[in-house]
């Protein structure tokens, strides 16, 4: 962890983000193809649609959280955050999943809170893990009970916060070598480069071309 490699684990993002991305992608292509094939080419339209598609991917499709054995990776529009279980001291869910580690708060853009449910928040330094019995949650051992049927749980901050707490508690009780303490946030070069290129193309298309 702490690098830009993709950890093996369970990726979490709302199904609606994929649906919105797919619909908007088709709509964007429906605008781009005729614009590129029609003379003279409207570069203002082409660059505007391109920028819109890039922003859609960055802020709607890309954000996700990846839960794996040692911790969680938050994939946000421009940054990637790697946190291992021992570093997380607080879990919240006001508007989205929020994790406090090493005195800093990190928000998972890809795990929004359900406004119809009470917000979730507690300090893990003073209160034991909350063992919520829900589909998608894990037991204190860090695994799903054998008798519990596997269901596709809704990706929401409240339920994921409960799972994170259970995994933190399981990591505390685990025997063997301790999990390394990592709380690392980095800029994603691909996302930053893509946004810069789309903005530059937009300026050229609207102002210059």
From TrEMBL:
Boundaries of every Low molecular weight protein antigen 6 PH domain copy: 62-104
UniProt-listed InterPro entries: CFP-6_PH
Transmembrane region(s): 12-37, 43-61, 190-208
Designated name of the protein: PH (Pleckstrin Homology) domain-containing protein
This protein's UniProt keywords: Membrane, Transmembrane, Transmembrane helix
Pfam families, per database record: bPH_6
Keyword field contains rRNA-binding: no
The keyword Transmembrane is annotated on this UniProt entry: yes
